[in-house]
Hints:
Structural class: alpha/beta
Number of helices: 24
Strand order of the largest sheet: 1-2-3-5-4-8-9-10-11
Largest sheet: 9 strands, mixed
Number of strands: 19
Shape: elongated
Distance between the termini: 53 Å
Helix content: 40-55%
Mean pLDDT: 92
Amino acid sequence: MTTLKSYWLQIFCALVFALSVPSVVLSQEENGRPRPFVEEFLDIDADVRMAQRVSFLEEIDAASRRWIEEYEGVKTPADIAARQKRQRDYFLSALGPMWDRTPLNAQITGRGEKEKFRYENILFESVPGFYVTGVLFLPKADRFPGPYPALLITEGHAEEGKEYDPYQGLGVLAAVNGLAAFVMDPIDQGERFQYLNEKGKPTATTVAAHNLVQAGSILVGRNTATFEIWDGMRAIDYLESRDDIVGTKIGVCGTSGGGTQSAYLLALDDRLAMGAPSCYICGFFGNLTHELGVQDGEQNIWGQIQAGIDHADYLMMRAPTPALLCACSDDFFNSDDTWVSYRYALRLYSRMGAQNRLSIVESDSGHAYTEESRVATIRWALRWLAGRDVETLERDATRLTKDEIRSLKDRSSVIYLPGAKTARELNVELADQQAEARRAKWTGIQASDAARLVSERVGIRTGEEAPRAVYYGGRTQEGESESAFETDRGIWLTTRENFDFNALTSSNAEFDSLTLVVSDIGRKSPFVNELFSRSKDERIVAVELRGYGDTQNICAEYYRHEHFGPDGVDACYAYLLGKNYVGLRADDLLAMIRYYRERFGVKTIRLVAEGYAGTVALVAAVAQPDAISNLKLVGELPTWRELLDREYGPIPLTNAIHGVLNDFDIDDLKSYLSEHGVLIED
């Protein structure tokens, strides 16, 4: 969110962004790539590889203005209730299918006592075979008789999980002051590693592992956050089930990735009586998107920016539930933006007469769960869960050893427990459940229904919204030419022709047929080179769609290229805006086809697609059946269902479509086009 003053500052920053390569992107000198042809030809200073990012930022700025306008119109209790319901309904739908509340099969696998608190090692199943580990800190009964209010402590991205000192330290601080506290391991941390080598050592943890889960989750319409939220809700179920816990007095807190989880749970679970997210709440309309760059999978919910859900909304969805924001002055989750979110949330709390139920604390620190934040969290919990306002908390430096804190005494990970399942396997189960309904949709489907189904799922634009290709000229050398086109504003495409295209456009020439080639490598892939060398008697144009070849971006290393492709971060920007690269590239392809048909009267368009560009070609051919005369696929193009079977991918995020397996898979599109005489198989 932004004020008018900060809005103009953001516009300035966006312009600077457009003319530079930010820290999350490798510079051209570092990656050794030559200046793209389209930059040389058009003699422009802006990096065309960043053009899509700049376009996304402009959309985010527009969403910010809409958000403010909508927020300012929410005044009455009825307005607030309607807004809360709309946002929560969207949030839950974007998380995708969760699970039935099956028996937790909870076990206390160990227990012990220290001088001022007790602890129990907990193991339960949030889904059958999906094991959750945690440690429950409890007060000594002779110091604080039960039952106890309780805190659910969600962990940030620490491999040690609940053993990490600030997390278990917060649990200890709660227990010595009269609260129960359950510190829960999220997936791929603590005792819940899912990616292990033959020696049982984790090969992907925390952020990297969460992104692996996210890539597969997108295909079935879920998110890594879906698993984290469900685990948290089942942890609340567990706390409610205990006689020594007051089920109506449960709160949630956590920092960093745990701040994300605690904010989500506070927004979505009505049973929570207070929350205290730390080192996460900032906002999508400021530093996070414009400078830092979007973060790992669970922190990006499908289409949430376009749907009008910002960080402050995680608080406002449950207003007037008491909430404390914990921030750090030098955090990469910008504390200035935290205060902006706090201000918007506080104004809404004030409209409800509940301004005393929202507060904020800021530590002079970098990104950390500081002592100030932990102390403030326990004070806040005591106030709202136990009815005690405490100025000075009792402290205890005692910590549990690794052996004491573990729920598993003879295994390194829950993955070795009988019947254990991974998040990937749960997504595979959902994909297989979706398969029967998906196949039924394509049995005897009419062309208009197929086009609508694909267009809506992929987001292909039609009518006045569809982009049009504009030719900017080109150069010819050694019998070939290269040309530059613009589709969406600022989005440049480069083409390669096996003839003098510039001369052709200067005349009134027309021709009947054209072979278009799209490759996920670019216009000079080995396959395209070989095709150009042996095809002299037909006109061939190799089109680089956005993000291919010259305009391919290289993004942050935590979106590891070997798992997600080189442009995973930009794919996440699209995801937050409710878009995907398959749809954007299909728009490019169809715009180019329209250009050739209208400019040169081309009647027959033969399309050849290499690699993952085949996905774009398939959806375009189904969405607009008159656009392509025939299609040939070259190279590997696995189905999305096959990609789910690959533990480490790659699942290129630019090839991922949210919830696609609800409606179709690659083989459905291929079968349909084969039946209609469009797809040509070797």
